[in-house]
Design brief:
By secondary structure, the chain is an alpha/beta fold. It has one domain: Rossmann fold, CATH 3.40.50.720. Helices cover 40% and strands 16% of the residues. It is built from 9 helices and 9 strands. The chain has a 7-stranded parallel sheet with strand order 3-2-1-4-5-6-9, with helices on both faces. Helix 3 packs parallel to helix 4. The chain starts with 12 loop residues before the first strand and ends in an 8-residue tail after the last strand. The protein binds nicotinamide-adenine-dinucleotide. Nicotinamide-adenine-dinucleotide binds next to helix 1 and strand 2. The site of nicotinamide-adenine-dinucleotide has 29 residues, from helix 1 and strand 2.
Length: 257
């Protein structure tokens, strides 16, 4: 598929967090195909280094949830690779992780803000076409997560709601950035519905997956590439007058309740 219509200027670079798997890996792969240099960040060193995306992909092992590490690391990465006009905040803990509400917010919206602040600090004052895309979720936009009747014993966010709270906070933070950046960069988000990635292997083919499938007008569940295509569009100059929006990517599955 030609990606020329996205119009990324020659020499563009992007940071993608959570680049080793799922939506992040699909995004990194498509950006490389669009001739964008990709700085891929992940905690999973083995997967990150085995992606095989070629010489325009630069892997860095970093935990975006560690407040003490992120700022310096991103600063060093930007100094090494030159101006990085684009950022995809995709990394985030799976909803099955047992976090307190405070920790859940720190690991979702907190991490997004931390990485974004470091990226902003590295942006040249005269940056053109700079943009960021945050990965939220339909869980924060309309649904709130799998109902207990369809997913039992999964724990994690099901016990205290940190996941929908964190994803809603990411959408709010995106709107705040869109306004407070005052044209220095654009900020948008995608909100994927249930998407076939490794973290959902335990529920995607079970009762919850079947329920979402039955409600989805397009007759299938999301693939990582579906979210990645939306991310690339919002990140690119093709979306140059779109700012502060959260684009739902769920095949319409959230509409039929
Ligand atoms: N899969 C879905 O159904 C779905 C739906 C809506 C939103 N999302 C969101 O999409 C994003 C990507 O999820 P995915 O489904 O592709 O999952 P995934 O598990 O396939 O990939 C996530 C990647 O992020 C990395 N990661 C996690 N925490 C990190 C951290 N603190 N620092 C650096 N890297 C970290 C993991 O190692 C992994 O490689 C997440 O923010 C998730 O909440 C997923």
């Amino acid at each position: 598929m030609s990606l020329d219509f996205l119009s990324f200027p020659v020499g563009s670079a992007a940071i993608v967090t959570g680049a080793a798997s799922g939506i992040g890996a699909a995004t990194a792969q498509m950006l490389c195909a669009a001739d964008v240099t990709v700085i891929g960040i992940d905690i999973d060193a083995d997967r990150l280094h085995s992606l095989g995306l070629g010489p325009t992909f630069h892997p860095y092992v970093l935990d975006t949830g560690q407040p003490d590490e992120v700022g310096d690391h991103i600063g060093r990465i930007a100094a090494r690779h030159g101006p990085i006009a684009h950022l995809v905040n995709n990394a985030g803990p799976p909803s099955s992780l047992p976090l307190s509400i405070e920790e859940g917010l720190a690991q979702t919206a907190g991490s997004v803000q931390r990485v974004t602040a470091a990226w902003m600090a590295s942006l040249p004052a005269d940056s053109v076409h700079a943009s960021l895309v945050n990965v939220a979720s339909v869980a924060g936009a309309v649904a709130g997560g799998p109902p207990p009747s369809l997913v039992t014993g999964r724990g994690g966010s099901a016990d205290n709601g940190w996941y929908p709270a964190g994803k809603a906070a990411i959408a709010g933070l995106t709107r705040w950035h869109a306004v407070s950046a005052a044209g220095r960069y654009r900020a948008n988000a995608v909100a994927p519905g249930i998407t076939r990635t490794p973290r959902l292997h335990d529920i995607v083919d079970g009762a919850y997956g079947r329920d979402v499938l039955a409600r989805t007008p397009l007759g299938r569940l999301g693939e990582a590439a579906d979210a990645a295509r939306a991310i690339l569009f919002l990140l690119s100059p093709a979306a140059s007058f779109i700012n502060g929006q959260t684009l739902v990517v769920d095949g319409g599955g959230g509409l039929a309740f």
